[in-house]
Amino acid sequence: MFFTITNYGRKGWIFGDIGCRLILTFDLMTMHVSVYILSVMSVERYVAVVHPMRSLRYRSPVCARRLNVAVWVLSLLLVSPCIFGMRQITGVQPNGEPFQTCSWTLGEPRVMHMYMTAMCFTSFLIPSCGYVNRV
């Protein structure tokens, strides 16, 4: 929503340098947390149905808390480059008027492409592989 607002606004990015870093970081982090929590829930349900007796060892509030903490820490680690890579920069519109934009500034443009490819793998491709049940 923040990027849509600023893309259609005349002045560009209005949330400052800190907002540039935090908004994208929180956006990506909550995306990863959602994907991973749903993946953990799916695996837990699979194990509970297929191996009901063995799964009792792992189905406890302590284990659930540990998994939740692990998911949040993993998500924070995966999006930490956004904290260092995103910056508010000043550009010039075609009419010569200056504007602010939130942009990736860490290394060359290919670094951002590599990071976004890694995000695709960690947030979509790997979690969607799932378990294949052989008959």
UniProtKB/TrEMBL annotation:
Gene Ontology molecular function: urotensin II receptor activity
Organism per entry: Stichopus japonicus (Sea cucumber)
Family annotation (PROSITE patterns): G_PROTEIN_RECEP_F1_1, G_PROTEIN_RECEP_F1_2
Transmembrane segments: 69-89, 113-132
Record GO biological process: neuropeptide signaling pathway
UniProt-listed Gene3D superfamilies: Rhodopsin 7-helix transmembrane proteins
Family note: Belongs to the G-protein coupled receptor 1 family.
Pfam families reported in the protein's UniProt record: 7tm_1
Keywords: Cell membrane, G-protein coupled receptor, Membrane, Receptor, Transducer, Transmembrane, Transmembrane helix
Protein's UniProt name: Putative urotensin-2 receptor-like
Subcellular location per the Swiss-Prot or TrEMBL entry: Cell membrane
Domain G-protein coupled receptors family 1 profile: 1-135
